[in-house]
Amino acid sequence: MAKSRPVAGPGSATIATIADEVGVSTATVSKVLNGRSDVAPETRARVEASLERHRYRRRPRRQPADLAQIDVVFHEFDSAWAMEIIRGVEAVTAPAKVDVILSQLGGAHRPPPQWLEGVLLRRPLGVLLVLCNLTEPQRQQLRRRSIPFVVVDTDSATSAAVPTVGSNNWNGGLMATRHLLELGHRRIAIISGPEDVLCSRARAAGFRFAHDEAGVPVDPELVRYGSFYLDAGYQHGLELLARPDRPTAIFAGSDLQAMGVLRAARQLGLDVPGDLSVIGYDNLPMTAWIGPALTTVNQPLRDMAGTATQMLLDLAQGNDLATSRIDFVTELVVRESTAPPRRH
Question: Which fold would CATH assign to domain 169-299?
């Protein structure tokens, strides 16, 4: 009968300890640590369980100063919204002489296995995730390699175990809708972002609450979920504004969707704000210059990104964070695209 071996204390296990316990080679354990895909699922599960049991952490490898880099991962970055995030990151990394590697997930909100394999091979100082997050096994693999991660999620609902910078989306939706109700609008539509994204649902929840407190019913036909991008605002805008009982105001859920709504309104011969009031979200720099200048909810994207980046660099240096969750305040910026509804 095989002799049972004493379990090493937390954090004291080596790759050889893990290999010996599981009955595999040290090369197999290294492949699991590196996120390699050429390991049988059952073997991977046994190695992962042993790593977790021993709370295995690889010692951080100091990168030469001229090679210091972080990975910034977007769900998508082909927009002015993403550029604001990148500018906020750059404001912190440039003075620190840290390079930035950008990647995007094509709209997905969870990185695929091959992404993790590349990160583990590069060994960056840390990973900043924007509107996307990791699975628990992916988090464990980064922790074992002592690669910290921080999330910019804007949804105010990420686990407290994940260092996160967000903003109060529920309050943003509430303020935007209150403004329209106070102007006298009673048929208000919302085009939020993807329904499976928490910040989209939070903005819609604020929209509903504002109606409830004003005693104004919400027409379910006027509640839409888009993608946060121009085409969604345009398509939903056309559909909503072609209705015989069209809304007199639209809370577009993002500045880009608001610009799509403005185009739809022009195409249908509607005046903004005379025939239709429109509110965006984010306060991108361009919104002050389009015609009419857009009323929007200010979400300080550059400050959020800069704060998240500094948190990541602090973690990479082995410093503890004062808090794992920072929520920025959202504010309504009133411009020219909202006005009381015309009386007929």
Answer: Rossmann fold (3.40.50)
Residue 268, φ and ψ in degrees, nearest 5? -90, 5
- Adjacency order of strands within the sheet including 188-192: 223-225, 188-192, 249-251, 277-282, 295-298, 331-333
What DSSP letter does each residue of 8-34 carry, written as one string?
A: PPTT---HHHHHHHHTS-HHHHHHHHT
Q: Could you tell me which residues come within 8 angstroms of residue 159 by beta carbon, excluding any fewer than 6 positions away?
A: none
Q: What is the pTM of this model?
A: 0.78
Per-residue pLDDT of the chain (344 residues; tens, 9 = 90+): 334 344 444 456 788 888 788 888 877 877 777 667 678 888 878 877 887 787 776 655 544 445 699 999 998 877 889 999 999 999 999 999 999 999 998 888 888 888 888 888 888 999 999 988 888 889 988 998 899 999 997 554 556 678 999 999 999 999 999 999 999 999 999 999 988 888 899 999 999 999 999 999 999 999 999 999 999 999 999 999 999 999 999 999 999 999 999 999 999 999 999 999 999 999 999 999 999 999 999 999 999 999 999 999 999 999 999 998 999 999 999 999 999 998 75
CATH 3.40.50.2300 domain position(s) in the chain: 66-168+301-329, 169-299
- Partnered with residue 152 across adjacent β-strands are 130, 165
The matching CATH number, chosen from 1.20.120.430, 3.40.50.720, 3.40.50.2300, 2.60.40.740, for 66-168+301-329 is 3.40.50.2300
